[in-house]
């Protein structure tokens, strides 16, 4: 039995390198919550989770007061049993973002530990479907950028080997969104993929008005047009649209994804490993999508998602938004292709000196077996 004997946790706040805006918010920072687990055999695993500027201390408090004390003495090899036990020990706080984000920090640490023990990288442990994946970039498609800047970024991305760009939409008028997309399509040609993201900003009527324009421009997908809990609205919109509806970054459980799939309310599944609760539920969502002949195109966290999209056969894209440069070596890529890490575990090469220097004062704590 690989008994868990000690856990450390801390928070690092990372500011974005560029201004990131969409139709409902601005990306303030990446509050990155880290968990380091140790077992009785001396093995170690390091996992993480994140927010976009609010709620990080709440995730850390749930870990410190409830989840990590409960974890002590449990068998690190039984990841499914651990995940379910932690979920149900605090079931009154689930399903929701704080619980899922806290679970993800623990779950990714357990998978990292398993990788170090076996000597296998995560993409092999979790399935081993492929070793590379095409990327599309979101980093130059933010809503505040004018059409000229969108075109310049997309041209640079295409020259670097990227096969697509995401453009944020949700301006006050259909013509405003059309101008942004038409500029990119005209400059990049018909073979370059353009994804769109409305970030839950639209009414059903406004989303419906944009569908003919998106169809005309051969847009790859229409992401989060409506509030994430409006399953019926997304289902109606999907029935009216030849452009696939994409959802998932604001869903927090396998059951929520199942509701979308059973309602035919989307065609692209964008499960986020942190927001759904870790690698364990992420894989379940991905395989459920595979069973319905649907693609998985995950949200954000490219340094972790690269391993997961290479683990499964139905993940054609990785979203490129770099955020860990200050605390980790750059993700391996060749032009617009991301390469699955070959190092054991998550395969992220953390800079521990920088992590220590950037740890938010007062955030670090330790939990030990027998001292809860």
Automatic annotation (TrEMBL):
CDD domains: MR_like. SMART domains: MR_MLE. One of its GO terms (molecular function) is magnesium ion binding. Residues 147-244 form the Mandelate racemase/muconate lactonizing enzyme C-terminal domain. SUPFAM superfamilies: Enolase C-terminal domain-like, Enolase N-terminal domain-like. Its cofactor is Mg(2+). Gene3D superfamilies: Enolase-like C-terminal domain (3.20.20.120), Enolase-like, N-terminal domain (3.30.390.10). Pfam families: MR_MLE_C, MR_MLE_N. One of its GO terms (biological process) is carbohydrate catabolic process. Keywords: Magnesium, Metal-binding. PANTHER family: ENOLASE SUPERFAMILY, MANDELATE RACEMASE, MITOCHONDRIAL ENOLASE SUPERFAMILY MEMBER 1. This is Mandelate racemase. It comes from Thalassospira lohafexi.
